[in-house]
Design a protein that fits this description.
The chain has 240 residues and is of the alpha+beta class. Helices cover 38% and strands 16% of the residues. It is built from eight helices and eight strands, in the order αααββαααββαβββαβ. Helix 1 packs across helix 2.
Amino acid sequence: MPTEAVENYLKAIYTLSAESPTGEAGMTRVAAAVGVTTGTATSMAKKLSAAKLVKYERFGGISLTPKGSRAALDILRRHRIVETFLVQTLKLDWSQVHDEAERLEHAISPRVLDALDRHLGHPRFDPHGDPIPGAAGELAERTLLALSDAGEGTRVRVAQVLDQRGETLRFLERTGLTIGVEILVEAREPGAGTISLRTPAGDLVAMSEHAARSVLVQPAPAAKARPASTPTPRRRRASS
């Protein structure tokens, strides 16, 4: 079984590679994600390459091999199921569970993980909207776009939050912009770099375009039109 350090690197490489148009993660970003220097991350990259977990060339990016991807998906599955359990069952705030899951994900056994999955009803997404890999590594596919790219006047549903720092999640919670909520992109102010959003409660929330890039949304389903009521025909009285 990979060590805790190896699992943290694989998870970081998987996440950063998925965000990169080249499918590779830069070593500087990997180092920042795991909290080490670039030199330390480079040394680990060489070890991971020797173990056939990554593809890495000096002065280049790093990507996972099929073997590395399977290991990364396994640790992501553990992390996201633990987060879901902490929120749904233990009722912890979604801004607190990331760090707790980081501690627990390395110690949980496959038996306990499967039991938690059954207990939760086999969730497909965690509290932040991240897809939870299945036991075989499969992921639910969705077509999402960044809130910053949503057109003015469109109605969208919040599906995933990429920036999971506590202050970001607390802001979203406080303003009502949580997973599953439908919002209206009311106005855009390119000069100021802000977007005005209308929440279901009717509140107007201003968000920077930079922050909106980390909130992924999907088009809100069209509201079903109510069928027009057909007046009951009046019965004519027979002439006497």
